[in-house]
Specification:
Rossmann fold; 4-stranded antiparallel sheet; 7 helices; 2 domains
């Protein structure tokens, strides 16, 4: 079942509380500390390109991969809108966006670093598929390249989202977000219903009532333990550097809602691009 089809139209509206500027700055600091000051970065699950474009503004050559054609179309449109340009860096218009499934993505060569932000990897609900992604990342990283990604925690799914319903109403759109957490499988099911104001014909524009299009999507995310993720990274051939409270250098706690993992390619040579 496809996700982020109808929701893609209003994704940025409902994500306007996400501190993208700070996240991008924090990501840059982490990469810089690991020696990744320039070069090509891959943004897996790039969505509408909010982080991708900001990192391009810092001077990185960016590639964005996402499975949703609708999300990528918005990302492509945004990079040509001057009022949406966060830094004015010309590299923001040179971003390469690719429609690919992260479970079997392909590149033409290696990259300096790979990032995967906004809990994109929680959408991978099978351990063997997560391992496959980690192996692909390791394959396409340059020697010593860095892999940085975040994940929602079991605590967030169980205690924060749980069986809760989240709703938000805007002037031109609204959504209802119902959560169901399966503690046995550690999978959170989202039932998302979106109402978007429809474009009306000219003769209808003076009516007091408005027409709305309804979209319904089902999303699934899995909570992984830190030990499981660490084991899979090492099985994929990477060096596990650490796990932190998201985008900080602080260790995670029992109430951390989002954690950030950092891993490194172990200076392997003779890469074979798959």
């Amino acid at each position: 079942m496809e996700a982020y089809t109808g929701f893609a139209q209003v994704y940025d509206k409902f994500m306007d509380n996400v501190p993208y500027d700070k996240w991008a700055e924090d990501i840059r600091k982490i990469l810089t500390k690991q020696g990744i000051l320039e070069g090509i970065l891959l943004d897996l699950g790039c969505g509408t390109g909010s982080i991708t474009r900001r990192l391009a503004g810092y001077g990185y050559d960016m590639i964005g991969i996402d499975i949703s054609e609708e999300m990528l179309q918005i990302a492509i449109e945004k990079k040509y809108e001057e009022d949406e340009n966060p830094t004015g860096n010309s590299k923001e218009k040179d971003i390469l966006y690719l429609k690919q499934d992260m479970r079997n993505f392909e590149l033409y060569g290696t990259v300096s670093g790979v990032i995967c932000i906004c809990d994109s990897l929680n959408y991978i609900t099978k351990e063997e598929e997560l391992l496959s992604i980690f192996s692909l990342v390791n394959n396409y990283l340059e020697a010593g390249g860095i892999f940085l990604f975040d994940m929602n925690t079991e605590y967030k799914y169980k205690e924060i989202l749980g069986e809760n319903v989240i709703a938000e109403n805007r002037e031109d759109c609204s959504f209802i977000w119902e959560n169901y957490f399966d503690e046995k499988e550690n999978i959170n099911e989202y039932q998302v219903t979106i109402f978007v104001e429809a474009e009306e014909e000219e003769e209808n524009k003076h009516r007091k009532s408005k027409l709305y299009e309804k979209f319904s999507e089902t999303h699934y995310q899995k909570a992984y333990s830190i030990d499981t993720v660490k084991s899979l990274l090492e099985k994929a051939g990477m060096e596990f550097i650490g796990v932190y409270e998201a985008f900080t250098e602080n260790p995670p706690t029992q109430t951390s809602e989002r954690v950030c993992f950092l891993a490194r390619e172990k200076f392997q040579t003779g890469k074979v691009y798959r």
